[in-house]
From TrEMBL:
Residues 477-512 form the EF-hand domain. CDD domains: EH, EHD. This is EH domain-containing protein 4-like. One of its GO terms (molecular function) is ATP binding. It comes from the Eukaryota. Residues 522-543 are annotated as: Disordered. Residues 445-533 form the EH domain.
Amino acid sequence: MFSWVKQEQGGRNKDGEMYQTVTEGLQSLYTKKLLPLEETYLFHDFHSPALEAADFQSKPMVLLVGQYSTGKTTFIRYLLEQDFPGMRIGPEPTTDGFIAVMHGENEGVVPGNALVVDPKKPFRKLNAFGNSFLNRFICSQMPNQVLQSISIIDTPGILSGEKQRISRGYDFAEVLRWFGERVDRIILLFDAHKLDISDEFSEAIKAFKGQDDKIRVVLNKADQVDTQQLMRVYGALMWSLGKVINTPEVVRVYLGSFWAKPLQNTENRRLFEAESQDLFRDIQSLPRNAALRKLNDLIKRARLAKVHAYIISYLKKEMPSLFGREKKKEELIMRLPEIYTTLQREHHISPGDFPNVAKMQDMLQHYDFSKFPSLKMKLIESVDKMLATKIAVLMAMIREEESKQPPAMVSGGAFEGSQDGPFGQGYGEGISAGADTEDWIVSRDKHRYDEIFYTLMPVNGKITGVNAKKEMMNSRLPNTVLGKIWKLADCDRDGMLDDEEFALAQHLIKIKLEGYELPTELPDHLVPPAHRKNPTKSDKLPA
């Protein structure tokens, strides 16, 4: 995980404040610079509760969202490689609440009402959603190596129809928005047989607006369809997501079957393995990027708080002193889109920094504008100074911490299963083929390469670069790739190729044409026997 350990040298800003860690610096800036602005202009009532120490010190969190029976709980079990307290798996909607799966020395379950009074957990502000939510929120604690680096939030399975949304007893989308602002990764799970996005699922995804960089999509149970069907399913999923996630960028979708059972269709096995490794690397990187994510979220929060202050103070300024307050209030609420445009032009604010106008109009109905505070430029300038100078100090500290103590990756569970050994990704394939064999793997096809070699008119057992180029160009690979292959194959750097070096070049071309990457340096097992420093008896080619 990212280093939260105190170091000998911290970051000192221009005011002389000394930060021992990035976490301490973030918490100090928020408390001293941003929090006064939020409290003055009722930011916590309109947008998001105040941040606490646990929000800055918590481990990276992964939020899983999806319709029922798409494999959310199974996915967690797959990562942890063990059951967790409170886990229920079935084809029907089994997870009927939120489960925070976290590390703990003793295995057990902490109910929601007890969880929101624990100052060490980042869930205290969930108390605002009431007993209906807290009765369906638990923390599942257990000793697990994966959970030492990250925490995972399981959510209720989403059903279609109005009934499910009303019967929850709490604002499901608002709870998801609360989590979305605080987690490091949001994973939307889809089943290859359940691609429809229901009304509630659509609302849930829209609740993550502004958190697009955190969203990843997993198309689970992809082994239950063949290649042709998978292609159609993938296209249908992208089309459905395009209607809900309104961004020009294409969201990253991982294909696979994330459970420890045999694949039903093995024709896409290599694809599934590559996709799962990509997803694992993305999750493993979360501790390394945790401080940057917190820094980024603080900047986003500061920009929104500034805009909110401008809106509130503008409404205060426009209110009459004595008569006609209600009428003026209704007029200002109706004119809110125009007010946004005015503030945007007056203060040079990006349109994307403004809160949702419809939601803002609805919330403003419940407030007396005459009691709003006037604009206090000292608070605004303090936040501006924080963004302009003090954030840069923390950015430098992040690089300094990483150089002194590289952050650990997420390990244990499924992350350890196929890293090393013969079942590691790419083991025995491409450039690593032949690494565990006694003979030189190129020798298996050398007789074919020799036939080509002797047609290129070798002189003293070697062919020139010009003649080799003519043959290598037949592969149609770009010159940049062929140039790299030449450097790898010309072991003695004499600008010519003997029969073994030419065979090696042909072998590397074959590897590249099969879709594998080339190494920057030639592995020992591919060095031609005649060019090895201490050739063994097994290296000698048969006569």
